[in-house]
Amino acid sequence: MAYKTIIEPFRIHSVEPLRLTTEEERRSALEDAGRNLFGLHAADVLIDLLTDSGTGAMSRDQWAAIQHGDESYAGSPSWYVFLEAVQELFPFRHVIPTHQGRAAEKILFTALGGPGKVVPNNTHFDTTRANVEFSGAEAVDLPIAAALHPSERHPFKGNVDLDALARLLEERAADVPVVMVTVTNNSGGGQPVSLGNLRGVRELCDRHGVPLFLDACRFAENAWFVHEREEGQARRSVKEIVREFASLADGMTMSAKKDPLANIGGWLACNDDALAARCRTLLVLTEGFPTYGGLAGRDLEAIAQGLREAVDHEYLRYRIRSTAYLGDALLRAGIPIVEPVGGHAVYLDARALLSHIPPLEYPGQVLACELYLAGGVRGCEIGTVMFGRHSDGSESPAAMDLVRLAIPRRTYTQSHIDYVIEVCEEVARRAPTLRGLRIVEEPETLRHFTARFASVPETG
Ligand code: F0G
Fold it and tell me: Residues enclosing ligand 1, CB less than 6 A?
């Protein structure tokens, strides 16, 4: 008998208490934080959907692996356990461990970026874009057209626009040090990239002699979508699909805080000996010796075990279903979201829900604040606050104003998510009464982390 309920393929082994707060307490906490949810004390948050990064629950076997951690400075056995687990899925010649994904990006773009260069991607994540731009290079997003229309359904909405990439490479291949493809496309809604699309990118890169790197944080979720949705892939295992993704690329950057199910870690990998040598030199300056990078031996062990669990089909079936459960309920309630539902998160379309608030009054930030006020749910604006300020100092609306509700892995139960659904419904009822925000203080880059906001003055 095949039952229709997809259950968590685990049971709970250790619990963390949650603290309930009143709306008054939350209002005061949010004011103190300058209406920036990154400024909150996490103990004042009830359901924390700010990110799926490093916030998941580790398994019994990961905690056990931590006990095997060997803290030798050079050549630790834990390093070899890590290396073997990484190369089992991503058989690149060189693997360079870093403390998290952005450290890998910083090293890669220090080695390859610089003024006059241009780096295409389906959509750069904020730290990727910032690292490309910090090197003096230009970061260009080339998603397919459907990616910019939240309600348009496409099975592989993370795909790269191959025509646009072909044009860019024809005009400027000499300025392109690397083509990046982000799987799944986080900023574009956690949407997958198809194998067919990646093969197309590979062909273009070959034609122009440009290397292709994956930003592979959510590689297992992406491969599950390929397994489920791409013609001819259903009979293959996720592991096989992941290995084909790796075989199409020349290297990768990785955050082990996502699909590898760890709380910290990352790596940079490639096949190019000269590039690897340059990157290892940079690694020693900021991260550490090449057999530990920015990590303790115990972290390397936790990541290795996490990688084995990440490609398990029962886990991925549950993972993708539990995200869809939230998205489907919001759609039934008439709340606009990015469709189809992505892998690690549901993205609310704040621009559609709060259509009376112009993008430069940050509808995504308004919506994220109200979800916190109404129910202690913390999401994350992915819109004009995150992407609206440009390196030349100008400001313009981002392509979309979204609020991401990211689901930490193996952490919240279905009743937590039922509660989140109720809070979203309450906020949708309040939507017409909500007012825009203005920024009263912001740093030069990555302003979404520390900017402070106030209400726009009432007019009329
Ligand atoms: N690339 C992508 C696609 C990411 O989503 C992230 C992080 C990174 C790179 C950087 O990795 O955090 O280990 O330095 N994303 C987190 C998020 C922060 O909330 O989506 P990191």
Answer: 51, 53, 100-102, 125, 127-128, 182, 186, 215, 217, 255, 257, 266
